[in-house]
Amino acid sequence: MKLDKKSEMSSICKQSKLSIKQTKEKKSLE
C-alpha cells in the first residue's frame, strides 16, 4: 500500500498534533 502525498501529510499532521498535545499535558502536570 502506497501513501499519496496528501495522506502522508495528513498523517504527519496528526502525529505532530498528538505530540504537541502530549507535551502540553506534560508541562501542565509539572
Give me a quick take on this structure.
By secondary structure, this protein is mostly helical.
Features:
1 helix; mainly alpha; 30 residues; 83% helix
Walkthrough of the structure:
The protein is mainly α. Helix content is 83%, strand content 0%. It has one helix at 5-29. The longest helix has 25 residues, at 5-29. The model has no long low-confidence stretch (mean pLDDT 87).
How are the elements arranged and paired?
Elements: H1 5-29
Shape: rod-shaped
Distance between the termini: 42 Å
Tell me about the biggest sheet?
none
Number of strands: 0
Number of DSSP helical runs: 1
Q: Tell me the strand percentage band.
A: under 5%
Mean pLDDT across the residues is 87
Instruction: Flag low-confidence runs.
Output: none
In N-to-C order, the SSE pattern is H
Gyration radius, in Å: 13 Å
The proportion of residues forming helix, as a percent range, comes to over 70%
